[in-house]
Amino acid sequence: MLAGKGVRSACLETETLSMKTEYILPNPEKENTFELVVLKVSSSFKKQHILEIAFQKLVSQECGFPISKCTLLFVNSKFLFEGKIQPEFFFVRKDVTEEVASKEKETKETSRSLYDLLSKKNLPPKYASRLCSHPRSCSYPEVCLAPKIPGDIFSLREGKEESGRLYKEGILNLKDISDTDSLTYRQKTQIKSVQTGTTHINQKVFSEFFNQIQYPIYFLDFESINPPIPVYLNSYPFQHVPFLFSLHIIREDLFQEPESFYYIDEGITDPRKGILEKLEEWILPGGTILCFNDKFEKRCLEESVTAFPEHKPWLKSIQDDFIDLAKPFWEYDYYHPDQKGSTSLKTILPVITGKSYKDLGIKSGQMANSEFLRVKTESLSASEKEEIQKNLIQYCKLDTYAMVLILRKIREWTQAL
Predict the structure, then answer these.
(1) I need a labelling partner for 95 at 20 to 30 A (CA). Which of 2, 215, 362, 389 fits?
(2) Do 218 and 321 share a domain, yes or no?
């Protein structure tokens, strides 16, 4: 059956198979046949889309819709939003008819095999699958990893293949690994830290790091949105557009209370304009701009001044002042057993300082992104908007204050040399 009017997707089913797709349209190029059109919220063609489209074609044809053309629609990341979405430029159309045809036999055999499997009264024994990108992101660990639920073996840094090999050998915990000769420096550091229960600190590296710091110190963090359909003029699909920043400033003494500033989109003008104006007022060349993974903040600033080029001279004047606080942690010059392989700010902060994000209304950048988009795109009450804004500011402020606390700890380590 084909979905009726008012339904946004075409839904078809046979006695054994069912599927949903975006469009099944008459193909004017070939009489009495149809074009299958699949839309993906992606900025590029991906090979895994072909099997999905091949299955949709299989079901369509079994339902009496002969498919002569298969088209994949994805988002044109170079589309500049100037106030109106023009579908003919916003989407990229790719004819994937030949690629889909090459998968027809495989798709038919796999579909029949899966249907036969699901029709059985007793499912086959469970076994470990390597189809997930990583077991930590597996939706069914109790199925794929049973009967052995692993300990911390899959927390091994960059250890997807190595963790899988060790798991097959029956090693479920990092503490039980004896042969580390083939492992990387970071993997060896992580394993040794877990096995000894001690924190690894390369004080020499942190001393060199701290010696780069010049006052005043500007601790900077952005929150951004990157929707597929742009919200702001002169922005692109999936472009990270900052809507909020937090800035802590320490001018002379690291252990003095920092000055705190922030700016958040007030819903009237493009936030990039206000952000650039405030940052140019508050950040002067010659100090240190400290970020955690500074590539993100640099990119936000570079793309923002493209939209507001009057701020290019200021950005050029501070470009050499950035220092990335994440680098020594990413290199495992510091490692605590409780990090479990992670080097994110939200992991580093509690193991070094005991502080955490657990009591905040917003606890991650992804959550900040989605909550701000709700404010911009949904009908919310004034109190709801106020609560979200308060939570966003608190979250962003902790990101920069966390860097203050971490840098103070680094200073303590260097003084111990």
Answers:
(1) 2
(2) yes
How many C-alpha atoms does 119 have within 13 Å on its Cβ side? Answer: 9
Instruction: Say if 122 falls within a structural domain.
Output: no
Given 57, 81, 115, the domain boundary residue is 115
Give yes or no for a contact between 153 and 166, defined as CB atoms under 8 angstroms apart. yes
Asked if 56 and 182 sit in the same domain, the reply is no
- pLDDT at position 3 is 44
Mark whether 229 and 178 lie in a shared domain. Answer: no
Model pLDDT for residues 246-257, shown as the tens digit of each residue: 999 999 999 999
In 3-state terms the chain splits into helix, strand, coil percentages (rounded to 5) of 45, 15, 40
Q: Which of 279, 290, 387, 276 is nearest to 345 (CA)?
A: 290
pLDDT of residue 140: 63
Could you tell me if 109 and 174 lie in one domain? no
Q: Is 2 a member of any domain? A: no
Q: Which domain holds residue 213?
A: 205-415
Our separate counts of H helices and E strands in the chain read 15, 13
Output the DSSP codes for 194-209: HHHT--EE-HHHHHHH
Dist CA 321 CA 301 (whole Å): 14
Same domain, 175 and 54: no
Q: What is the CATH number of the domain that holds 369?
A: 3.30.420.10
- Alpha carbon separation from 129 to 113, 126, 135, 146 (Å, rounded): 18, 9, 9, 10
Please provide the DSSP assignment of 246-285 as one string. Answer: EEEEE-S-TTSPPEEEEEE--SSS-HHHHHHHHHHHH--T
Q: What angle, 0 to 180 degrees and rounded to 10, lies between the N-to-C axes of helices 382-415 and 203-211?
A: 110
Residue 130 placed within a domain: no
Per the structure, the count of domains in the chain is: 3
| Residue ranges in the chain modelled with pLDDT below 50 | 1-7
CA 67 to centroid of chain Cα atoms: 36
Euclidean distance between CA atoms 365 and 221, whole angstroms? 11
Which pLDDT does position 56 carry in this prediction?
A: 96
